[in-house]
Amino acid sequence: DRVPWPYGGFYLEAMDENPSMTGVGASEIVRIQVISEEEYANMLRMRTTTEEFLRRYRLADEQLTRLEKALQVLRQVIETRRGDLEKSLAEAQKAAQATEELFRQMGADFLMYEMEAGLTGALNEITAKLKHRLIQFKDMKSDDPGLYPLVGDMLADLEKPAGRLRDQVTQADQLATVAE
């Protein structure tokens, strides 16, 4: 069952030091074929179900919703002076950090479909805005006079890219409905 070596492949052999074999050991020869990004995307498309495709969109939407709610609760606690300010601040800081990290990772993922470019664009825009604001926000204390304006700025920064992200989620849901 040997496959002839086309011009684009590599053959690798691994050696190890196995004590029971007096330092001699070799793996089977393995063929590695270098393929284009388009070929790789086609392979992923064939393996991906509609639900797996939608999972990324829904995860992004859920995480963004978590962050928005945490920031809104924090703003309300500051405005009304009711509730646990320390707890609300810690939850908003944690949500902001988690959102920035998740969106940065998702924005760097390989795109299987052209339509995912819209999702990636929205994720990268939110990540850039959060990264800029997190420099200040992550170390703020509840008695910091700049906390309230910063929370308002963060919510304002998220408004437009959040709309674009949610448009992408809606489009993905519609596409999945048609595909099923």
What is the alpha-carbon Rg in Å?
24 Å
Mean pLDDT: 83
What percent of the residues sit in helical stretches (DSSP H or I)?
55-70%
C-alpha end-to-end distance: 38 Å
Poorly predicted runs are none
Biggest β-sheet strands, sense, barrel: 2 strands, antiparallel
Subunit arrangement of the protein: single chain
Broad shape: elongated
Number of strands: 2
- Helix-strand category: mainly alpha
Tally of DSSP helical segments? 5
Order of helices and strands: EEHHHHH
Beta-strand content: under 5%
Strand order of the largest sheet: 1-2
Briefly characterize the structure.
The chain has 180 residues and is mainly alpha-helical. The chain has helices at residues 37-47, 50-80, 85-107, 116-137, 147-179; strands spanning 9-12, 30-33.
Observed structural traits:
180 residues; mainly alpha; two-stranded antiparallel ribbon; 5 helices; 67% helix; 4% strand; elongated
Explain the overall architecture.
The chain is mainly α and 180 residues long. The protein contains 5 helices and 2 strands; from the N terminus they run ββααααα. It has helices at 37-47, 50-80, 85-107, 116-137, 147-179; strands spanning 9-12, 30-33. Strands 1-2 form a two-stranded antiparallel ribbon. Helix 2 (50-80) packs antiparallel against helix 5, helix 3 (85-107) runs antiparallel to helix 4 and helix 4 packs antiparallel against helix 5 (147-179).
